[in-house]
Amino acid sequence: MQTSSLSAEKTGELDQKFGRLIDQFEQEVAPYDRLTRFAAIGTFGGVIVSILVPILYLQFVANVNPYHAFMSGPAMYFVIGGIVASKIVPRLLMAYSNHKKHELSRTKYKPITGVCMCDLYQFRTHLQKMEKASVAAERIRHAKLANYYKQKMNS
């Protein structure tokens, strides 16, 4: 009971001080979040495409047994290269997206707030999830995560 009243006070303080800044930050990083979502979907789709396209091409266009072509030709290298690329390229996109978000936070918001906006956003998110949680274990988990981000902002 005491943690929920404590979190309500923290959320009230947080919303009064930084609520608008966090909302503005969310709007500014929305394109990078979309890029991250696209990359996550691309990982799954890239693996499927890099396996199915060569099989369909060899069977219907080249009129070759695809299983024989995989063993005797460069098709296997294409498939393996496609799988590796579909794992690496999305991770690079996600790393670029995170870099741009932190750069925006460092240059525009950190001089105003004194903390990284990514951490502040995560702190607010976990406080809100803690309030909405119906199970005690879930509240405790979000409270621990909120404390982690609060300590990260204080250091």
Question: How does this model look, in words?
Answer:
The structure is a single chain. The protein has helices at 2-61, 66-72, 75-113, 117-132, 136-154. With 155 residues, the protein is mostly helical. It has one domain (2-154). Helix 1 runs antiparallel to helix 3 (75-113), helix 1 (2-61) crosses helix 4 (117-132) and helix 4 (117-132) packs antiparallel against helix 5 (136-154). The longest helix has 60 residues, at 2-61. The two termini are 29 Å apart. Mean pLDDT is 85; it is low at 1-6.
Number of helices: 5
- Which residues form runs of ≥5 with pLDDT under 50? 1-6
Could you give a short account of the major beta sheet? none
Order of helices and strands: HHHHH
**Oligomeric status of the shown chains?**
single chain
The end-to-end distance, rounded to whole angstroms, is 29 Å
Percent helix range: over 70%
Q: Which of globular, elongated, flat, extended, rod-shaped describes the shape?
A: elongated
Beta-strand percent range? under 5%
Query: Whole-number radius of gyration?
Result: 23 Å
Structural class: mainly alpha
What's the β-strand tally? Answer: 0
List the helices and strands and how they pair.
Layout: H1 2-61, H2 66-72, H3 75-113, H4 117-132, H5 136-154
Helix pairs in contact: 1-3, 1-4, 4-5
Task: Give the tags.
155 residues; mainly alpha; disordered N terminus
